[in-house]
Amino acid sequence: MKRVSILVPESAVMEAIADPMYMFTAANQFLQASGRPDLFEVELVGQNKEIRLHNEAFSVHTDRLLNEVKQTDLLIIPALFGNMKFAVEQNKNAIPWIVDQYNKGAEVASLCVGAFLLASTGLLANRKCSTHWAYYNEFRETFPDIEIQDGSIITEENRIYSSGGANSYWNLLLYLLEKYTDRDTAILAAKYFAIDIDRESQASFAIFNGQKNHNDEKIKQVQEFIEANYSEKITVDQLAEKAAVSRRSIERRFKRATGNTIVEYIQRVKIEAAKRSFESSRKNINEVMFDVGYTDTKSFRTVFKKITGLTPIEYRNKYFKEPVTQ
Fold it and tell me: Which domains, from first to last, does the chain contain?
């Protein structure tokens, strides 16, 4: 029997508590239907017996208090809601308990931005982590010693798991279910919950807004120049000249301020523009490619897939919808 303890934090996302509970409870039913015994003992645990969520719109009753849980097999940390610093502060008393459970052999999984609470334990120091793409910058600033897996749906390292944003945590739940049972049970669950079982990236959902939450004004000016001129050929030497600094200095400062190299940043700006075009226009692949400053089809397709996880045609087919004519 595997004990699955779902933490009910203050400021939690209600669905991120209910969904793993539903998944592992349903898994027991799938196992029973195939003539096998239940495998999962699922419980809700928290600092209090009753925890109110979403401005007290919901009330969750825990099965056990944290100090009553001596040992568990899998600890799930749901997504948090609102201001991450405030949410982590609300749940700081749970941090020693999470660390204790991990040290006793439990596997620990964070869902979406539950990664902020997991990272606050110190267990992810110098390790890798996935979280919601919209929180990458804040996460990097808060936890500079943790490597974000850009675009990744699932990250696993030393009994610690983390998932990408929003509903992609279902893919981590399926991953864990397959690990504890078998592929057939995971596929059955995927069909039951209508989930794409092997989706590996959240990159196609990401919106690149540029990383300007820093204090290097010259680098901000360089970023703004790139964003205003992405359809042109831009060189590092040209940017260094505009900023009146050496090439070596601008490359070092740009990477420190944004987390990207200059070349990576230019690519991401171009691809973001291409994505918007594919979503809203009838232009073909070559037209969009030229519009954003690429002249080589292979290079454009390679960079586009690297950043979004999809080919240009796959992205267009996924997100473009012909307008309805009256």
Answer: 2-205 (3.40.50.880), 217-319 (1.10.10.60)
